C-alpha cells in the first residue's frame, strides 16, 4: 500500500551531502517526492510502499554521510500527492540555504583515498581530493549560506568535469563546495628556509606536485624539519625515529620537555608501538581523526626526547590528502633505504628500525605559547628559524584549528569513555545543549532544586541508580567510539531570545556562544597570556558571531579579577554574570549529561579563584546549575612565591611540608638540599605572609609529591610533575592485598570538621576539611625506607581516589545525594579517573564526567554559559 510521510531531519545535515544521499536512498527504495533544505534542517516528502518507507527512514538515521550528524527525525503521516519521481528542490528564499550548524573538517574518506592512489583516476595523487563526505568545512567558510563563493575556494573556478560532478545529484561530489582537481583547484607549494625572499615552487601538474613531495621527503630523510600546511594551520614535521631530528625540533621550537605527537601510516603500524583496543582503533580511524593518547608497548624503544618518562604516546593517522601522500612517500623512502643498506648512516640514525615502523612527529606549527600559524607567508616569517623547508599550498585557511586530543578510559561495567584533552578540529563547532531552558508553557526557568543546607537524613540503605551517566552511548561499548550530538531543546529559537557570550578561563581557553537550547563552544584557543593569543580569541569570536548570526546580549566570565577575559567582560556594555571557576567545572559536566542537581560535585584541578580570595582546586560542591555550597575542600597550604611555586615545585613541596609540620622528617632531606638557599627564603615568605597565597589545589599536591620523590623538580611544561608521577604507576606490579590494605590506611586522607567565622558563608567556607598530612607523612616514611618510587606513586594516587569515594559517601550520608560529578584537570590523570569511576560504581554511585568537552579548563566557558543561563 502506498503511503506518504513528511520527514523533518535536524542536525548537521546541510553542506555535507545529505540531500544527494536522500536522493540516492529514495531511488534505492523506490520513493517518490522531494527533499529540501530549510533553516531548521532538511525536509522530505516521501511516498512509497509502507515497508520501503520504513527502510528509507532507517537509512536516514543509520547510514547518513560521514560528515552529517543527525540529531532528530520527526515523522508525520500526510495525504498522498501522487508524485511519480523524486527530486531535489531549491527554494528561492535566501534564508533556506542558511544553517546554524556547520560541519567540522573531516578526514579523507575511503572513497577519496582509493581514488588518490588509483593511477587510472583523474585525481591520482591530487593533494586536495575531497567529496561531500570529507575534507575542509569550517576552516574554509567565510559566511553563510555554505556556498563556494563564501569559502576560500572562491578563488578556484571549477573546470567542466568538476562542475558536472558538482551538479549531479547521483555523484558524491554533488554540491561539494571544495571540489577540485589538478586542472582547476589548489596546488601545493615548496620553499627552502633561509632565503631573504622566499622562492616558492608550485605543483600545478601531477609531476610537479610529486616532485614537491619528493623534496619534502628528502628533507625529512636527511633529518630536517618541514613545516606542512594542514586544514587548520601548519604542523612542524620531522622523522620521529631520528633522535637528532627530534632533538633539533625540540631545541628550535623551545619545547623542552612536553611530549610530541606522531603520525603513523595505519593502525597496524600503531599496534607495533602502542596497545590499541577496539574503541581506540575506532577513534583513531574515525572521521574526526584526533590525536589519541595510547599506552606504549613494553620493550619498544622510541627516540629520546619524543615522549620521555611517559606511559602514553599521542598518535594520529593521516587525515588530509597531503598527509596521506607525505606519509606514503616517506614510508616508501624508508623501506627503500632499509632495503638498500641496513648499515647506512640513515639506518643507524633510526632506532629499533626492525620493530618501530616509520612515523613522523606532527606538532603544532607555532612558536612557544603563540597560536598556530595559518598562512604560507606567516609560516615563512615566524617559523623560518625552526623549519628547514615549507610544504604549503594556495588554499587560504580562514579559521585556525589545532588537532583534537583524546584518550579512551575504562569506566567499569559501563565500558569505555572517550575523554577529551583538547577539543578542536573534527569536533568543534558542533553545538552542545543548554539544558532546562525556559519551559514552553510558562516561560520560566525549569531550574534544579537548590542543594540541601541541612542534613536530609541518614545514609541511604538502598542506593539509587547505579551506573555512569557521563558516557556517550557510542563509547560505552567496544568498537563504536564516535561521539553523539546532543539533541537540542524543543523550544524554538526566537530572534529576540538572549544570547550569552561566555569568555572562558585564562588557560586552555575556549569561549561559548549560547542561545536558547544550544551552545557553540569554540575550538581550543590556548593560554591567554600574550597579545597573539588574545587577537586569535577576538578573531574566533567575531567569526562565530558572524557565522551563527548571534549577537551577545549578556556576558559570563570567571570571578578572577585579573583574568584578561574577565577584564574584557567588564569592559563591555552588557550585563555580566561572574561564575566561580569550580562551579563552572561541575555545571559543564552536569549540563553535558542533562543533570538538574543537586549533585556531589568534585572539582580537582590546579588553580581557580575562590569565593574567599584563596586559590581553590580541591573542592567538593553541593551544586545545581544555578548555585553551589562548599561542602568540603583540601586544607589550605601555602604557595611561597605564588606562581613561582608552580614553576618550581620544590617551593610547593616546602609549603606542604611547612603546613603539615614535616620539615624535620628524615625523608625530606634530599628535597631541602635541592631547594638550597631558597628553603630559607620560602620559610620567611610563609612566616611573614609575603607573596604566599593559600591554596586547596589537588594539582599542587601532585606537584609537591612529584618534587619530594625527585620525579620532577624543574618542570618544562604545565602539569609535567603530575604526568610523570602518573607514569610511574604503570610500572609497578600489583601488591599483595594485605600490603595494599596497610598502605591505604597509612596514606588515607584525614577528614576534620572545618571552623566557620561570623562572616563565613556556605559558598566560601566548607563543612569539612580534607587533611593530606597523613598522606605526605606516609609518602616520606616510604621514601626514607627506600620503598620503590613507583609503589609510592601508586599509593599516593590511591589516596586521592580514596578521598573521592570518601567524600561521596559523606555527602550521601548527610544529604541523600547519590550522583557524583567529576571534573577538573586532575581527572585527566588516567589512573585517577579510571580507579575513581570503578570505586564509585562499586560503592553504588551514579557517576557523571565530561563527555563532549575536556575535564580541564576547556570546559569552563560552557559551564559559565550554563550557569549564566540558569541564573537569568
Our count of helices gives 25
Which value, in Å, is the CA radius of gyration? 28 Å
pLDDT averaged over residues: 89
- Binned strand content: 15-25%
Q: In angstroms, what separates the terminal alpha carbons?
A: 52 Å
Please give the number of β-strands: 33
Shape: globular
Low-confidence stretches: 92-99, 344-353, 438-495
Summarize the biggest pleated sheet: 12 strands, mixed
Helix residue percentage: 25-40%
Content-based structural category = alpha/beta
In words, what does this structure look like?
The two termini are 52 Å apart. Residues 92-99, 344-353 and 438-495 have low confidence and may be disordered. The longest helix has 27 residues, at 789-815. The protein is of the alpha/beta class. It is built from 25 helices and 33 strands.
Topology overview:
Blueprint: E1 2-12, H1 18-28, E2 32-38, E3 41-49, H2 50-62, E4 69-77, E5 86-88, H3 110-116, H4 160-167, E6 188-192, E7 201-202, H5 206-221, E8 226-229, E9 234-239, H6 243-253, E10 262-264, H7 267-273, E11 274-275, H8 278-284, E12 291-296, E13 312-316, H9 321-340, H10 345-349, E14 359-364, H11 376-382, E15 389-393, E16 405-410, E17 416-422, E18 432-433, E19 467-468, E20 500-502, E21 512-515, E22 518-521, H12 531-547, E23 554-558, H13 564-571, E24 576-579, H14 581-592, E25 599-609, E26 615-623, E27 628-634, E28 637-638, H15 643-647, H16 649-659, H17 669-675, H18 678-688, E29 694-695, H19 698-708, H20 720-729, H21 737-747, E30 750-753, E31 768-771, H22 773-784, H23 789-815, E32 819-823, H24 830-842, E33 846-849, H25 860-870
